[in-house]
Design the sequence.
């Protein structure tokens, strides 16, 4: 079992990564016998994995309630927040209870957010089931829900008590979701680690065929890279912003399609490509590196061109609402080489428009 | 001007107390020229004080939007949260904006809560206008809204950037609200400061006639007492619970009447009396001290008996949901003398019922 400790000033918590983690004694520590928990999952995962997790919790001696939320990004909203809170209150859960998020980013973000506001804050454990949440969403304490006017506009920083990354879940993950998750993996490599990028180029076939040892290394490396950033800048005042490579453009695509046509990682993949071309226009990155990155994304099966439905003007409208912005200026995270990114606050709208135009 | 600094591990902020504070240069520090702010107030305060505060902000060079919420505890709910968030998004406020809460506990708690969850947390300034919020609600970072199943069940700990306690507001505060606020003042004295209790007994007439120097001392002393507690235990893991003297019983009364028939402080006053008798049954407090406290509450004009509509059984039903509870046990804060309170986790339901019976 790989164990990464996320050390923050006021608290620290472990990330466990391996196969068959749910069988390990004390995996739910610091929970103890007779503690109350509320297991939150979705309608897709429930028939596949819920009873296994439930069994582990019951074996552990815990008193378990459960709530099943409909699957999908569109349920990551205030209605689901109220549903979960009403369930907790109706079942008289006090502030010593623990929420357990069994699912992808939607379940994790929603459950973490409720944990941060229920009775002014309770514990929660992340059990991410998608590649995307295992390498990204479940780590670092960003929680939140969407608003019709923008993604993740309502949320908090609230760290989990532990993150249990059980790789077995990936065996039942739909292929398109697995591929979507890989865009965040590639993002880490482009942003922080050239050697990891080279490793990905070499091992991408093993990853796509779910070779478990390759996956164990891949997921662990991503968690290590993310952990390094979080312990320096938990609240995204500076370097944590770098994790948003491809996300400002990507969020615009997701918002335009109202979180339905494209998976998060698919939008991020297109967003990364637009960021690459923005870098090129600014003279930050050469075309050889750009082709090399696009080649990897395509090999994975990720989209790399903008769907024709979105006009370049629509992009700007959605980008202007990004949380990183300051005084109406659009903040972009742009690669300066494979393995390094920087924050740019002052990119002109014309350059952004030109970069977008290059990606149809 | 009195200035109290609340020093927390990760941040510290000032509480300013005086008359005519809004005229003071730099009172809104660290806000600066051209910063955006959203002023939140209610329909009752708006015609009296909004333009004065707005004038100060505009003089200061800030770009001000405003939102007016209907007056009353019943608007401290998720609907108002969504209204404020939608307003912020529609007006493109980014995460560098600042909310300004001009109002009593409802406006302060609601605005602070939105500040804690809008784009994962933004700044807010408290400008409390009622005695209750000046001595209690605006200080210490407890934010939140009510749920139909319980008061303040949704919330967070989120500290303000500063608290501006302008005593002039008390001149236009309805008498019953002023009196309601005094129950929290008496609470501080009973819980922490015998000398302050004696001072209150001596000066209560000056307070009731709004003698401003007496009020300045009174409000400052309460803020000092609360600050001492908060810096030790911001998140109410131990000694901050002591501030809830009278509140477990009081919340039950408020919940029963759905926050309509009794003001918060009026419920707390009755709650304090029930706590006194609970102490007496447990042999913690003598009847002379109890009569002395009740005498002060009555002199102020606060209610000290339970309205007949609530049966003693209803009390228990609502008390069981209190946030301080652990494993279904009701946690009570009980006086052991005038100037000292302790936490009791194990008071039997029979004793609670007996104490309630003594207060009709």
Sequence:
């Amino acid at each position: 079992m790989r164990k990464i400790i996320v050390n923050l000033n006021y608290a620290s918590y472990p990330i466990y990564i391996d196969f068959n983690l749910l069988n390990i004694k004390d995996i739910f520590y610091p929970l103890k016998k007779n503690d109350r928990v509320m297991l939150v999952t979705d309608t897709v995962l429930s028939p596949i994995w819920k009873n296994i997790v439930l069994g582990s919790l019951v074996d552990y001696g815990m008193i378990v309630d459960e709530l099943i939320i409909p699957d999908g990004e569109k349920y990551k909203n205030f209605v689901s927040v109220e549903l979960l809170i009403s369930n907790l209150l109706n079942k008289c859960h006090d502030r010593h209870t623990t929420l357990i998020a069994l699912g992808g980013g939607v379940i994790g973000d929603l459950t973490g957010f409720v944990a941060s506001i229920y009775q002014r804050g309770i514990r929660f454990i992340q059990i991410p089931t998608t590649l995307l949440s295992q390498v990204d969403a479940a780590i670092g304490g960003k929680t939140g829900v969407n608003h019709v006017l923008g993604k993740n506009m309502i949320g908090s920083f609230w760290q989990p008590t532990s993150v249990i990354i059980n790789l077995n879940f990936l065996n039942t993950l739909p292929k398109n979701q697995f591929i979507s998750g890989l865009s965040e993996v590639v993002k880490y490599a482009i942003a922080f680690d050239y050697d990891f990028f080279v490793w990905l180029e070499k091992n991408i076939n093993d990853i796509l065929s779910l070779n478990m040892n390759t996956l164990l290394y891949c997921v662990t490396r991503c968690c290590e890279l993310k952990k390094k950033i979080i312990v320096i800048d938990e609240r995204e005042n500076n370097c944590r912003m770098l994790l948003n490579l491809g996300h400002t453009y990507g969020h615009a695509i997701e918002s335009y399609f109202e979180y339905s046509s494209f998976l998060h990682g698919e939008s991020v993949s297109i967003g990364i490509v637009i960021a690459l071309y923005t870098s090129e226009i600014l003279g930050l990155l050469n075309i050889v590196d750009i082709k090399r990155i696009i080649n990897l994304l395509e090999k994975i099966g990720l989209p790399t061109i903008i769907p024709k439905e979105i006009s370049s003007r629509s992009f700007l409208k959605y980008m202007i609402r990004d949380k990183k912005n300051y005084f109406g200026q659009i903040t972009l995270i742009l690669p300066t080489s494979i393995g390094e990114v920087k924050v740019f606050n002052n990119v002109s709208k014309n350059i952004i428009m030109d970069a977008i135009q290059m990606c149809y």
